[in-house]
Structure formats: structure tokens, C-alpha cells
Amino acid sequence: MTFAKGPRTARRSALRTVLSAGLAAACVASFAASGAAQAAEIGKVGLGLPLLTSPFWESYNKYLPKYAKEMGIDILAPVNSNNDPAQQITDMNNMVNLGAKGIVVGPIDSAAISRALDNAAAKGVKVVAVDVAPTQGTVAMVVRADNHAYGANACKYIGEHVKSGKVVQIMGDLASVNGRDRSEAFRACLKNYPDLSLLEIPAAWKGDVAATALDSLLTANPDVKAIYMQAGGVYLSPTLQTLRRKQMLFPAGDAKHIVIVSNDGIPQEYDAIRRGEIDATISQPADLYAKYGLYYIKAALEGKTFKAGPTDHDSTIIQLSPGMLEDQLPAPLVTKANVNDKNLWGNTLK
């Protein structure tokens, strides 16, 4: 049986409803105020992008505001240095002048960036380096994957799928530790496959340079059996266009197919794997670079420190040199067998 509420009971019920709503609103307001206070306490964080002509860095850039919001970090608008080391130094100094208390930056030149790092340190500004480790200067953390493993794993894949012949390595910028690490590791590994011979293209992360050099190389060496691209974000399209123009692009399974392994893990590479145009790529974690770049800059601004050893996010912190630590994030090999894995960041982009 249901009884109708009397006037007094109705008033009490309405009062409880108002109080509950007010309490909920107060909690939300308190949470928001707490987040704002936390952001104000650690100060503004500057974001330095090496370039935005690569789908990899475009993707990284899209993750930054998402994770900054989740962590309650007040960020300045990201600055793109257009692959110019001198401009990157100017950009970082400008961020310091704008009042940034911390900076997350993807270094273009491992040595040149030391000038900006020294200026930041002199002003008490913390810096986290993403993707590339500086060779000098002070950073709170380097967030990076094992670039030696990139080169070695690409070589192993090619060595297992090509028994003999010429292999082309399209290299990155050798002024960057990434370009050096990948190149050196690929060369060292290839010595384990004496029937493979190496041809190299120094392309400095520039797609047009890679395309022109590859065109000439293939004219002189039409019997190339494999290609290793150190950065799919800048080399994928020019390489495939060059092969297509020279009528040398055959799908995997065809006797004339050139085995191609890339680095980055962008959606365009996954599509190329599905079409059989390339065979594999190594997924460089753009999402985790953004997430942990911001994580470590926030920690640095809060006075936290870290030491070498395993982390709680499936990676390992190593000591690069005295006072410089690097969190080496996982970077899986992606082939046709796992290209549709929904856990790969390249399959999560809308």
C-alpha cells in the first residue's frame, strides 16, 4: 500500500533533494578548484615540437592536451620548430621568458639543444626530453624507446625474410642520437647475415631527400631486395611513390616484392602492411611519449626524483650518463599477424 506524502514530509524530501544537489555541486566545484590549484602550484608547462610534417608528431601533438587535462597541467600552446635546431633554441628560450616552469621538448639536434637546456637550468626551469636524448645539458628525464632495438629488430626481420642480396637503409639525421643509434644497430646486426650487402641513404628525416636519393640508387641497383626506413612518418609515402613510379612496387607474396621494414607505428604504415606494400614497422609509442613526458615534468615540478630500474608501466629506467636517466618505453614489432591489434596506438586514432 502507498501512502500520499503530507505537506511536512514533502517539504523534508524537497529539502533533502536540494541539500544533496548542493553537496554534489560543491564536490564538483571542490574537485575543479583542487585541479586548478594544483596546476597553479606547479606553474605553466611549455611544449616544444620538433616538426609537424610527420604523422607521428601530429599524433603526439593530439595526445598532449588530453593527458595534460587528465593530470591537471596548465600548458602553453605547443610550438613547432620546423626541424630547425636554431629555431628550437629560440623557441625554448621564449617559453622560459613567457614564464614556463617546465618544458617538454623533442630535441632536434642532440648536441645543439644543450644551449637551451643550460639557459633553462640557469632560470630554474625543469625540462623533460622526449624521443631524443641530449648529449649534454640537464634534463629531469628522457622519455624514449630503445632506438638500438629499432635498428636491430628491423635488421633481424629482413635477415629472416631475405636470404641474399642488397639492403637499403634510409637513415635519419645523424646529428640526432636516434639516427645514430638506429643506423649503428642496423649495421652491426647485418654482419650476422653475410649474404646481405648494405647500401645507405643519409636523408636527415627529409622525405624529398630520401625520394631523390632512392630513385638514383635503384637506377644503379635494380636488384635491391629490402629497404629499412628509419621513420615511416617522413619516408613512407616518398618511398612507396618512388617504387611505384619505377614499377618496382609489388605486394608481399610476389616473387618481385621488396621487403620493407619501417619505424613509427602510424596508421598509414598499418594500412600499407594490410595492402602488402610494406612488411613490418616498429610502433614508436606516440601516446606514451605524450603521457609520460607530461608525467615526468609534473613530477619534476613537484620535486620528485627517480632511479634506474623497472617502472610500474612496463618499461625500464636506465642511466644514460651521470645525472641523466631515460625511461625506455616498449616498442613492439607490428606485422600482418598483429596489425589489427586494438591496443596499438596507431589503431586508436579517430
UniProtKB/TrEMBL annotation:
<dbReference type="InterPro" id="IPR006311">
    <property type="entry name" value="TAT_signal"/>
</dbReference>
<comment type="similarity">
    <text>Belongs to the bacterial solute-binding protein 2 family.</text>
</comment>
<dbReference type="InterPro" id="IPR025997">
    <property type="entry name" value="SBP_2_dom"/>
</dbReference>
<keyword id="KW-0732">Signal</keyword>
<dbReference type="InterPro" id="IPR028082">
    <property type="entry name" value="Peripla_BP_I"/>
</dbReference>
<dbReference type="GO" id="GO:0030246">
    <property type="term" value="F:carbohydrate binding"/>
</dbReference>
<feature type="domain" description="Periplasmic binding protein">
    <location>
        <begin position="46"/>
        <end position="304"/>
    </location>
</feature>
<dbReference type="Pfam" id="PF13407">
    <property type="entry name" value="Peripla_BP_4"/>
</dbReference>
<protein>
    <submittedName>
        <fullName>Monosaccharide ABC transporter substrate-binding protein, CUT2 family</fullName>
    </submittedName>
</protein>
<feature type="signal peptide">
    <location>
        <begin position="1"/>
        <end position="39"/>
    </location>
</feature>
<dbReference type="GO" id="GO:0030313">
    <property type="term" value="C:cell envelope"/>
</dbReference>
